[in-house]
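Progress against Task 2.4 (sequence-to-structure conversion) is shown through the following example record, which the project officer requested during the mid-term review.
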Amino acid sequence: MIGSSTPEAELAKLSVYAHQAPAITVAERLARIEKARRLTRDMGADALLVGAGASLNYFAGVPWGASERLVGMLLSVTGDPLMICPFFELGSLEADMKITAEFRLWQEHESPHALIGQAMKDWGAKVIAVDPAMSFEMVSRLGRETGLEIREASSVINGCRMYKSAAELALMQQAKDMTILVHKATARMLYEGITTKEVNTFIETAHRRLGASGNSFVITQFGRGTAFPHGLPGEQRLKEGDLVLVDTGCYVQGYTSDITRTYIFGQPKPEYQRIWDIEKEAQAAAFARVEIGLPCEAVDYAARAVLEKHGLGPDYNLPGTPHRTGHGIGLSIHEPAFLVRGDTTPLAPGMCFSNEPMIVVPDTFGVRLEDHMYVTENGAKWFTEPQEAIDRV
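Structure tokens generated for the chain above:
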């Protein structure tokens, strides 16, 4: 029940999550690398360069954030992985590595791009496919300093990461289950006068109590703040009769959750209830539309048809849905493919999406119900069951 408890009582109920999903195995990572080799060959390139970030984590198990220093994996279509790394970071990088690879090191005054160029020369390779997440500055320097032909590697990176394995689905399921527990605890501990900052602090603490490596993010908005999809700056205080929107997630071994609940603190106005019911109908329509082989955009169209039936929209007009119906998710909170007009990527088993066709009544209030689903041979399957009612989480 919303507002029936206290922050202290709810935190006391939480402990490390009992059902821990297994880590990604070395064998699975090696299979990913082999698929990347094949996809790199298919696009006519001789090697793939993966920069620091989610994709390096995907292939090598290295949770290394991108910076101005180049850290990356260079993968020939025939050879073993080669890691490019600053000399002083070798120990830290080796400790994170989940696969075996040769290291080539550069000192602070040296160019890592020269190491890449030399490796490509040694292999007799001239065409390099580059991770699309790498910075323009790095890619530009690579071209200037090596003379290599550079191609953008979205087809390789997305061709691997878009389709989740059973092991990935299990890690994502754990993250989402944990966030649902946090959502329920958050709703119970609310009280009149609590601030959005205090709610955010509670959510961070609750996720960590369950064993997550902290929030992936958190957005808490009350009343008018719910009309802004990513919220308003500053603190808000909860009042009787306010709508509450909480959008949050956590990380489990790098994989993330991202779930939103919108509910009433007190008694809902009739217009709140009407819009909440339409939102739930649109979310259900998007889920029901998932079918192997359909383009991703078909799911977005299904949600918007519900809104138009109720006189909302059309398109991105408000009152209505100001953004896409959903995004891919995995090691990144937002990743391809996307449930939006123009994304014609065919739906296929293992693809994972948010389902969140938010409805905004401009400058007044908004309702976002966000759960995640994955594609199976028989349509979509929920990771988490959708919210049942405006006064229940």
